[in-house]
């Protein structure tokens, strides 16, 4: 399947992408992780890192390039997470891939702030935790690989506020874009990760 997961920062796109990859054996295409993996990257538009630390969007040509390359390697399908984030990226994607469905994870603003400020990530294997909602077995240590967990630089309250406004202004309008194409499935993103996965999986199955 070719799945697009859309939703605000902290909606659980990364968390649920993992389930999709395990279940369907597709590629996880995530511009956020790709940019973080390359944190000293320099481009003619500046350092992506600096846009990210301010909570702003990285210039389109940089992320479009990441996505084209990843799509060309995703023969068994993909789950796209964190892309597209504005109208121009959505048009670009339209020219390069067909989608089976677009799943929107819906979560209230208050919950998003709690999730993001409490998130901890493994710098080695990328697994995501939450200090309260999804803690590792040993505080501060990755269950999967034993590395010390860290907080993302853009998970401070100030940057989270900026990311949420950038989402409202640039990315939220894409919901209508995909609704008009008949691709959109709304999923309640507020339950436990397992509850959300149950609903998301049903939405995927019904669209395939
Ligand atoms: P990116 O890395 O894509 O971040 P994001 O979209 O802001 O999304 P997040 O990763 O913050 O949230 P998520 O929905 O994946 O939630 P998660 O599963 O981790 O982008 C970062 C930056 O890169 C951007 O600001 C921009 O600068 C740049 N960038 C990236 N793509 C770009 C693009 N296309 N164009 C331009 N710039 C781009 O969950 C969050 C927390 O909640 C975790 O702690 C998790 O454990 C917990 N949690 C998850 N599900 C639940 C649940 N059901 N109940 C309770 N807790 C839960
Ligand atoms: Zn790890």
From TrEMBL:
Please list the residues that bind AMP: 31, 36, 56-58, 82-85, 89, 152, 163
Q: Give the protein name, as stated in the record.
A: Adenylate kinase
Residues recorded as binding Zn(2+), renumbered to this chain, are 122, 125, 142, 145
Q: What does this protein do?
A: Catalyzes the reversible transfer of the terminal phosphate group between ATP and AMP. Plays an important role in cellular energy homeostasis and in adenine nucleotide metabolism.
Pfam family of this protein, just one? ADK_lid
Keywords of this entry: ATP-binding, Cytoplasm, Kinase, Metal-binding, Nucleotide biosynthesis, Nucleotide-binding, Transferase, Zinc
Gene field: adk
Q: What is the lineage of its organism?
A: Archaea, Methanobacteriati, Methanobacteriota, Stenosarchaea group, Halobacteria
PROSITE patterns, alphabetically? ADENYLATE_KINASE (PS00113)
GO MF entries: AMP kinase activity; ATP binding; zinc ion binding
What NCBIfam families does the record point to? adk (TIGR01351), PRK00279.1-2 (NF001380), PRK14530.1 (NF011103)
- Member of which family? Belongs to the adenylate kinase family.
EC main class here is: transferase
* UniProt xrefs under HAMAP family: Adenylate_kinase_Adk (MF_00235)
Self-association state and partner proteins as the record states: Monomer.
